[in-house]
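Good morning C.,

I know you're traveling, so I'll keep this short. The sequence:
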Amino acid sequence: MVSFYRLHPLQDPEDLARRLRAAWEPLGVLGRVYVAREGINAQVSVPDNMLELFKQTVTAHSELDGVYLNCDEPLSKEYAPFSKLQIKPRKHVLADGLPRSLDWRENGAKLSPAEWHSKVEQLNKEEEGAKPILIDIRNFYESEVGLFKGAKALDTVTFRDTWDALKETLKGVSKEKEILTYCTGGIRCEKANAYIIQELGYKNVSALRGGIVNYAQYVKEKHNSSRSQFLGVNHVFDQRLGQRVGEEVLSRCINCGCSSDVQTDCANTHCPRPFARRRYIQCQECAIRQDGCCCSECADEKKAREQRDETQRRLEELQVSLRRELRSRKKSKDTAAEAAEEEEQRLAAL
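The tokens, ready to paste straight into the viewer:
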């Protein structure tokens, strides 16, 4: 897995999309890439034997020269996160809902995973008033299964909610206070930190370079999960849904209350849960017992709907069979009538 982004003005996003597709399709690259006038945001899977060639294709495009590539752990084909390559020009690579764009390049410092590890470790030893403010720039369903020790979760539903949540979180906080932010891969912190600096007036602002994905790789290479300053699972936006970083399980099954951090969506396509809250925590036992649904009511509705669909399918099959039988009978009747008419004509000619 490789992810990267760059918030830097692009003159012709459509042209860049065409060139990237032409370069990456022969390499077997799969994934999701957004390009816009504000920059690029990419999450792709690259075959191991093509990784170096892929890196060369990235640096070969002047728009991407010097971009930081976040290389995650290798995955087997069984857990392939993407099924095709999608490169889409869009209005924004990260929709923010702000009335005007900021200078996304003015976004504070970047800390390496090692620097971040030490900073968070020290932060949790300091007195409450002296420690920096550590903010999780992700949505509620991400932070509920994993976050850094001592972090304040914004508990947003979408990224557009970030700005009000930041203002509320930093209300009354001195402008001299050190602010630390993190997100999954880093791009949300680019915009969030630009907002914290340019709109809220803070100066000492830093982010984790490469986000949790980069930190997870650091922990794997330098430490073990028991020393991770990140607790639990890193929610990722592909078919894996989660990447374990710390040993802890922070959340509980919505049905039985046991410890679980498996996120899922209700198998009842007509589930009444609001769309923004469709993703929930459910243990394997409850998922089996409720046929992949969030509650017994949804399981009953799913079963009834499947029965109705099966009845409708059988009815349609019977209707097709009946029409076929009627056509066959009509054809036989027409053939018999034609034979009788021919016999009458033969007798009349005698």
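Safe travels,
E.
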